[in-house]
Amino acid sequence: MAHGHLVAEDALTMERQWKLPDRGTVGIVFLIVTESVLFSMFVIAYLIYLNKSLVGPYPKDVLELPILASICLLSSSGAIVFAEHALKHNRLGSFKLWWAVTILLGAYFLWATAVEWRKLIFEDHLTIATNLFGTTFYSLVGLHASHVIVGLIFLTIVFVLTLLGFPIQTQLRRVLFLSWYWHFVDAVWVIVFTVVYIIGLPR
Amino acid sequence: MTDELHHGEAGERSEGAHIQLPAPTFWPMVFAFGLTLLFAGLVTHWAVGVVGFVITFRAALGWWHNVIPHEEHEEVPIEPELRPAPILVETRSVVRLRAGEQGHRQRVPEEVHPYSAGLWGGLIGGAVMAALACLYGLFAQHSIWYPVNLLAGVVIPGMGSATLEQLRAFNGLAFIAALVGHICISGLMGIVYAVMLPMFPKYAPFWAGILMPLFWSGLVATTLNVIDPAMNGRINWLWFVICQLAFGLVGGYFIARSTSIKTMQSWTLAERAFVEAPGVRPVREDEEK
Amino acid sequence: MAAIDYPLQRPKAEPGEFSFSETLYKWVATVDHKRLGLMYVASALIFLIVAGIMATVMRVQLMFPNGHVVGPDTFNRLFTMHGTSMVFLVGMPMVAGFANYLVPLMIGARDMAFPRLNSFGFWIFLLGGLLLYYSYLGGGGLSGDGSAPDVGWFAYAPLTERGFSRGHSSDYWALGVLVSGFGSIASAINVIATTFCMRCPGMTLKRMPMFVWVMLIDSWLIVVALPPLSAAQVMLLLDRYLGANFFNTQNGGSAVLWQHYFWIFGHPEVYILIFPAFAILSEVIPIFSRKPLFGRPAMVAAVVAIGFISLGVWAHHMFAVGMTSWSNTFFAASSMLVGIPTGIKIFNWTATMYGGRLRFTTALLFCCGFLFQFLLAGLTGIMLAVAPFDWQLHDSYFVVAHFHFTLVGGLVFGLFAGMYYWFPKAIGKMLDETLGKWHFWLFCIGFNLTFIPLHFAGMLGMPRRIYTYAPGRGWELWNFVATIGVFFQIAGILFFIYNVLRSTLRGQPATDDPWDGWTLEWATSSPPPEYNFEKLPVVRSSRPLWDLKHPQDPDWKWE
């Protein structure tokens, strides 16, 4: 009796032409999708509770525009692009430099947030329990800051490994995904900044 | 790795005796365990959380070691005894069902009755029905206007409180309302019949002539209370059903007598779109003549 | 990439040479999608039995008026844990389990896209579930009050706030579900990446089996719908631990916000839960009707439509909250809109069976049960989507009966169909058909006996979640009959358990393709080897095995 084979004669040609997206790309894209939904829930909560606080302090009394920190964070996105570019062309020295710049810019942003929170908590007596502004402000900015921290941890690991002589150019794909995550964190800051410091601050 | 296909991590090795699969590892489980303990620390004791953190950290290192610099793989030997049985070719061949083929349960009508036949059948059936209803009025209340007035109650709410005398008398407005309503409904029902008749299974006269009027009567019986309280209180259901049956039988007879027209159901898409190209359209019998 | 370190070579194993610890290691450390899939389904079945026992206790309590089998506090915990377990620890792992086992096999892959993430997903789901159940022991442990959570499966604020829920019971609810949610998201991303990146040559999206399509959309829904729940739970934990004010009405917070956030997750969730049943039916019905799925493109379009429309219907759970009439209208209309694609699916399954050469195996019987019961559930769903109707019956037993018709009459029946269908593939033994028919009929009769009467009890005004009721309200008969039905269901489930155990140990060995199937999982041996396919298959149509079995009339000539 005749029987068929799943692998046909033209299988090899078909296999050679068969192109599918990279699994890491798809994975990181949907991780970003799911994180975006998470962030939007906190953004919506911030907008819903805007101007609903029963007691002070209110945003207009205590918030100051973190312009320098924002510039630093956003330009770190550019720095990581340069680092990536250097790595692609196997210029390790340049990669290390731009990578370090990325980490420093991110770290400055985090430090600036810490300083801002310290002022809000100890000078303005605004805690997460004070009013709705405190609740939504600390949770939204804190959620973003926690993502910055996670990103910085990964960036630092890559940096330390590179300094120790690990052949980082073999990990180009993973470095690329890390940079996408970093761009995402920066993009979220644009939204958080708009919501908290522009829409949330009446002029 | 030049010639190797990339479908995730699994892949064949050139020797052909092994297949490369991701190596087993328990670090993801330990990582999950540590993470759960970390959260459980919130509901139990901070020390649990600290232990959880330590475990998570250790597991993360272990996991990284699994994937950096390369994902760890193991080569699984191909087991010849696990080869699936060959797939047998079925000896029976397949016949494709064509629309309109006899002896199958596929019932897309090849031929339908024209709408005009439905309209005329409905009007003639409606006339017979009206005649029977008037006959009933003559017998029961000595007035042919009695059923007309009752029917008008669908659109004239005042009929609900009318006395018997008023119902027997001729009422111009009610007459026009009943006439227009009756003609419209009869015509529409006739068209519905014309569309549906070819789609019924065998014994179309039975379905159209008897069962559909009975369904219709049932529908009216359940809703009449709402749409025409005047009629609901006074209706004689036996006569009502007889009138409906008369409509169904007479209308159905006239529709069935009409000359059917062919539908495009058995044509292919290309034929329906009138694509003219050699080989697209099989030559049909009537064209061969 | 020359510097690849050569992997370990596993020596050829003789059967029966593994010790206990080796077997344990094989299962615990596995990253094989088939083992993980089986572990998902097995743990889900265990949770199903546990939560089923809770339901039985509740039904026995409500069998007669003034029942006193359990007290009110225990009853509150029972319905909370029953609902939470059934949704998060039975439904979700069933999704993940079936997808894990079948998606790689159906698309001709050797594993999931992220095998280690897959293992992580399973374990964190299981440990999250155990954390939730640990509340029975630990909920009262260190702080004194409370045991298992008792706030209902949707845990409405402000009942869950510190002031109303002392102790840690609500924390256990939030943490257990949050933690197992990580697993769901991980496995959903994994399924998406697998379907996009791991298909065998020739397996275009157009040719992908319907099962894989539905699971892909299901994973999309998980990815976008689960984060709102996680966000709400994080907010709740912030409220409870740090004194934040999200849901604290004393300080301007809004309890309605919780409802919105919960149902933004909660309504897509019911589609997430029912989709595996859709997926299973779309494979089982064509095989046992010997006809290809009717209207395949329409089926794909319908499932994609549900995947998007269902994201915009959530507030129909909240008609009784007092929203604006515009919101009520919008959500009533959008809810009814979902009925259209769902109707298309029901119609197409029926049309697949119509004119087919039906083989009434147990799997197809369960599919038929699904069609009737899910249709009924859909109709009561449309009724409840009408806002004024919902005002009458909100939070009544009518609603309970409605969603049990979707989730038991729909999902559970679909899952059983899938288990009878793929058991030979997964275990290598056939499930006994006679026992299976006992299982089906007992379960089907029991299910309808339980949940049809609850519609009437609900319309007579019986509110859900009451722990007992006074006689003389006309609810006695319905509750009595409902509880009788439960015993039939238990008998059915016992038949199932016995069938699984007996068939696994002493069942008739299954051939590689016992049902004369058309999709790729039937092209490998039963059970499949660890690497699934020795050579990766190449496909040319949506029914690759049909093409091979009928070289005169292959599908690719028509598609």
Features:
heterotrimer; A: 203 residues; mainly alpha; Four Helix Bundle (Hemerythrin (Met), subunit A); C: 559 residues; Cytochrome C Oxidase, Chain A; 15 helices; 65% helix; 0% strand; disordered N terminus
What does this structure look like?
Chain A has helices at residues 11-17, 23-48, 59-62, 67-88, 92-122, 132-163, 172-199, and one strand at 3-4. Chain A has 203 residues and is mostly helical. Chain B folds into two domains: 11-79; 111-262, no CATH class. Chain B has helices at 27-43, 46-67, 115-141, 145-152, 164-168, 172-196, 204-227, 229-234, 237-257, 269-272, 285-288, and strands spanning 11-12, 18-22, 73-77, 87-88, 111-112, 261-262. In chain B, the strands form two sheets. Chain B has a three-stranded antiparallel sheet, with no helix packed on it. Chain B has a two-stranded antiparallel ribbon with strand order 5-6. In chain B, helix 3 (115-141) packs antiparallel against helix 9 (237-257) and helix 7 crosses helix 9 (237-257). Chain C is an all-alpha fold. Chain C has a single domain (37-557), classed as Cytochrome c oxidase-like, subunit I domain (Cytochrome C Oxidase, Chain A). Chain C has 15 helices and one strand, in the order βααααααααααααααα. Residues 1-6 of chain C have low confidence and may be disordered. The chains are: A mainly alpha (203), B mainly alpha (289), C mainly alpha (559). Chains in contact: A-B, A-C, B-C. At the B-C interface, strand 1, strand 2, helix 1, helix 2 and strand 3 of B face strand 1, helix 1, helix 4, helix 5 and helix 15 of C. Strand 1 of chain A pairs antiparallel with strand 4 (87-88) of chain B.
Give a short synopsis of this structure:
The complex is a heterotrimer of chains A (203), B (289) and C (559). By secondary structure, chain A is mainly α. Chain A contains 7 helices and 1 strand, in the order E-H-H-H-H-H-H-H.
List the helices and strands and how they pair.
The complex is a heterotrimer of chains A (203), B (289) and C (559).
Chain A: E1 3-4, H1 11-17, H2 23-48, H3 59-62, H4 67-88, H5 92-122, H6 132-163, H7 172-199
Helix pairs in contact in A: 2-6, 2-7, 4-5, 4-7, 5-6, 6-7
Chain B: E1 11-12, E2 18-22, H1 27-43, H2 46-67, E3 73-77, E4 87-88, E5 111-112, H3 115-141, H4 145-152, H5 164-168, H6 172-196, H7 204-227, H8 229-234, H9 237-257, E6 261-262, H10 269-272, H11 285-288
Antiparallel strand pairs in B: 1-2, 2-3, 5-6
Helix pairs in contact in B: 1-2, 3-4, 3-6, 3-9, 4-6, 6-9, 7-9
Chain C: E1 8-9, H1 20-28, H2 33-61, H3 72-106, H4 115-138, H5 169-197, H6 210-242, H7 255-289, H8 296-309, H9 325-353, H10 362-385, H11 387-393, H12 397-427, H13 433-459, H14 476-506, H15 544-549
